[in-house]
TrEMBL record:
<protein>
    <submittedName>
        <fullName>Uncharacterized protein</fullName>
    </submittedName>
</protein>
<feature type="transmembrane region" description="Helical">
    <location>
        <begin position="168"/>
        <end position="192"/>
    </location>
</feature>
<feature type="transmembrane region" description="Helical">
    <location>
        <begin position="204"/>
        <end position="221"/>
    </location>
</feature>
<keyword id="KW-0472">Membrane</keyword>
<feature type="transmembrane region" description="Helical">
    <location>
        <begin position="110"/>
        <end position="131"/>
    </location>
</feature>
<keyword id="KW-0812">Transmembrane</keyword>
<feature type="transmembrane region" description="Helical">
    <location>
        <begin position="137"/>
        <end position="156"/>
    </location>
</feature>
<keyword id="KW-1133">Transmembrane helix</keyword>
Amino acid sequence: MSIVLEESIRAWMAGSQTLREQITEQGTARFIAVLGSTASPDRAQVDRAAARACDEVFTALTADAVLDSLPSAPTEAGAREALRSRWLSLNPAWTLPLPVSAPGLPAQRLAIAAAIGSLLGMALLGGLLHLTLGVRGLGMLIGGPGGAALAMYAVGRLKESKILRNGLKTLLGVALAADLLGAASFGLGALWGRLAGIGLLRRLLIYAGAVSLLAFTRGGAQYDARAYRASIRDLIRQWVDVSSILLGCLSAGPVTPPGDAVLDAGLARAIQDLHRSDVGNLPAAAESLLLEARRMGLEGLSTPPSFTQSDRAERPHLRWSRELEEQYRPFGLIEDGDTVIVEDAPVIQNGRVLEKGRVRKQR
């Protein structure tokens, strides 16, 4: 039997290869869509995306068309639901890894730096060669890629080197302090600006450029989105394959829906009579229901019911012992020999405790 089952599952796995690949791609696409941005995600974002991808895969893998193609396909709707329930309960939880992140600059910023460097290189080197040799085209041809390379290198070095960033911040702070000091001296002017022959407007442009450069080169954690997608797809493919084998194994066993509980006919009739009784006939209907319960072996109903007595029945008191733990649940700390009050009586049928009662310590 096991050999036949193994061969049938192997044949089904071979025939459903394309379907499993499609389900894998659906789960991967769902994960990436929920994950959203290219910024480095945290644990909560990855778990949320994994849960959505898991739902997508499970829904596709347990569709009626897939279940009908199993080696031992369930024929009834109840059997399908029972198979899905067993399969979901045995599937392990999905825990997808976080992407491997490293500090760096986004590709958009590098592209902007390359474009600006290329323009500056063509303008400077082209103008220089035009003034000296009269060949502007050659200068622009060399200055374009050279300026782009130098700009990307400078941006990368400024991003990685704390010394360069701190030095630029220090120079910017000193220059700004000198300008503020000069402005506070009632028109004496900034000493460094006068010595360098730089006007106020140019100094403001230099300040803005330095601040923009520092902000432009301030990068964060980056990861390779393509490599991360490939790793997630491989993990989802493994889960799909293992879950498919599990689904095939479970379908071979007897999967039957749980049977409906049948209520005793006499007890059901007594309950209906109690529900249809008016106020005057309630005691008689309740007594009929209690008789049916006693007939079925429910213990603790031999004494007259409390609603037939004029005086309020006092709750029974017991002396707590270890033997009572088989029928009662203690509420709070109760030690042997303590006097306890029975809050709820146990439900016992034919000597078997269906539900324990509850007791509390007498204060």
